[in-house]
Design brief:
It is a single chain. This protein has 31 helices and nine strands. By secondary structure, the chain is mainly α. It has a domain of 146 residues. It has a three-stranded antiparallel sheet with strand order 3-4-5. The protein has a two-stranded antiparallel ribbon with strand order 1-2. Helix 7 runs parallel beside helix 10. The N terminus and C terminus are likely disordered. This is Pumilio homolog 12-like. Keywords: Repeat, RNA-binding, Translation regulation.
Length: 497
């Protein structure tokens, strides 16, 4: 509760006898002073929680005088440029402390302990009653007195006035400061419509540098927390404005998706808008810069957020973009990873079109350092039509592919399919080819796989492979061929003839 400057000392003395109160302790918002929009708790010793606590317990704050400017206190502590401090407001709900004061608010401690009792105000309730956190005992709990409700509403009005004083760069700097960000985050968590409206309006303004303030906040380690809590507080109309501002400039949108904090906030917007027509603002931008975003590690997860949370009709345009750019994505490191995530979620006719496009380009993709992983994924789906496409198109290329790291994995996967006989016959058609693959760093794993699958199935091709390889065991006894040699002989050495 506000007091006149002439009675401030008496107020402190009386509070000391009745225990700590919100007004005297000056916790949370009241401990933060403004110097060019930044919080400062170091330079002004008289504003520290420790000194305020001493004053509440009968100590004195030397040299402090209180005046009123626009109904807000202005404390002068012996230095020329005094600073504005916002009034105290519900420290228990802002910082999560766990000790109750005289007026029913948490005052001491750092975190609300499990099972501890804390009171949360219902600011819009006509009766102004309080509620008790889940898990707390209801015995002995009483609502706030009418006097407390009046005081708390007065504090709320003062905080609203304080936020009005945060203009332009002062507001930006306050958000970018650790303690300032924490304060605004706490105030937004009160879900007061007027506080939300004021902060939303400031976020949508331009800074003195001509940059939208929300961009500076979304890309900052402290500022993004303010925007995150703001998004949770917005009504539908305000959320529409924020969504429009984020998406109206494609280059800005791309910058945000590439940044860790910015992408996290966009993903949050996606989750909130998943049942709203406003989601088209986001998906349209993602489609417009699909290849660029999908080939960025951070940005690709924004698209994945849509695929995992939106309805099929909302993702239709994104899947069309994936089909259009699938070959370009497949040969890019980040793009191939993102494309595999698309394969995991796409359904229906679009799934058929995507897998058909990839399998039809199996020869090209199988020999690419990144594309081979996409073809491995297609084979692992065990869809006969597309597996047949891959195995058939690779005939005549198995030797070349087997000598490559990624390609050898593809051939091994093909040998696990029902088309393995045609692949093995392709190797048996030329003994020199068979030996070259068997001695290769990567190819020897392909021949080992061929021997294992034919032996397990009892195929006559197993004996054909042995008849071609045994005359050349002395050659296979050294180098990478030794793996094939050991598989055939059980590790026994063979004398050269």
């Amino acid at each position: 509760m506000e007091t006149s400057s002439g009675s401030s000392d008496n107020s402190m003395s009386s509070s000391a006898s009745s225990g700590p109160s919100v007004e005297n302790l000056m916790l949370s918002v009241a401990n933060l002073s403004l110097t060019e929009g930044r919080t400062d708790t170091k330079n002004h010793r008289c504003f520290s929680p420790r000194n305020c606590l001493l004053a509440a317990n009968g100590g004195s704050l030397q040299g402090i005088q209180e005046t009123r400017i626009n109904r807000l206190p202005r404390y002068q502590a012996g230095f020329a440029n005094s600073t504005l401090v916002p009034p105290p407001l519900f420290p228990g709900t802002i910082w999560g402390s766990n000790s109750l004061g005289d007026d029913g608010w948490d005052l001491h401690g750092s975190r609300l302990q499990s099972g501890a009792r804390s009171y949360v105000p219902i600011l819009n309730s006509p009766s102004g009653t309080s509620v008790v956190d889940k898990g707390a005992s209801s015995a002995g709990n009483t609502g706030l007195s009418d006097y407390s409700v009046v005081r708390n509403q007065e504090k709320l009005n003062n905080v609203r006035n304080f936020i009005c004083l945060l203009q332009g760069d002062r507001f930006v700097n306050y958000c970018l400061d650790k303690e300032g960000s924490r304060t605004l985050h706490g105030l937004l968590s009160l879900r007061d419509p007027e506080i939300t409206r004021q902060i939303c309006k400031k976020v949508l303004d331009l800074s003195s540098r001509g940059i939208p303030i929300f961009i500076e906040l979304m890309l900052n380690q402290h500022g993004w927390h303010v925007v995150s809590e703001l998004i949770d507080s917005l009504n539908h109309q305000q959320l529409r404005l924020i969504t429009y501002e984020i998406t109206k400039d494609l280059s800005i949108f791309i910058t945000l998706t590439f940044h860790t904090h910015g992408s996290n906030l966009i993903k949050k917007v996606i989750r909130i808008l998943r049942r709203s027509h406003l989601i088209s603002f986001v998906t349209n931008n993602l489609c417009a810069a699909f290849l660029l975003i999908m080939t960025n590690r951070i940005g690709s997860y924004v698209v994945s957020e849509c695929l995992n949370h939106l309805r099929a009709e909302d993702n239709k345009a994104l899947y069309e973009a994936a089909i259009t750019w699938c070959l370009d994505l497949a040969i890019d490191h980040e793009g191939s990873i993102a494309l595999i995530r698309v394969i995991n979620t796409i359904q229906g006719l679009q799934r058929y079109r995507l897998l058909n496009m990839l399998s039809r380009n199996a020869v090209f993709l199988s020999q690419d350092p990144e594309g081979n992983y996409v073809i491995q994924k297609v084979i692992s789906l065990n869809i006969p039509l597309f597996t047949q496409n891959v195995c058939h198109l690779l005939i005549g290329h198995y030797e070349t592919i087997s000598l490559q790291k990624g390609g050898s994995h593809i051939v091994e996967k093909c040998l696990d399919t029902e088309w393995k006989s045609r692949i093995i016959e392709n190797f048996l058609s030329n003994t020199n080819t068979l030996l070259r693959v068997a001695k290769d760093e990567f190819g020897n794993y392909v021949i080992q796989k061929a021997l294992k699958v034919t032996k397990k199935s009892g195929s006559p091709l197993y004996h054909k492979l042995l008849s071609r390889l045994k005359p050349h065991l002395s050659i296979l006894q050294s180098g990478y061929g030794r793996n094939v040699f050991n598989l055939i002989t059980g590790g026994q050495s063979v004398k050269k003839v």
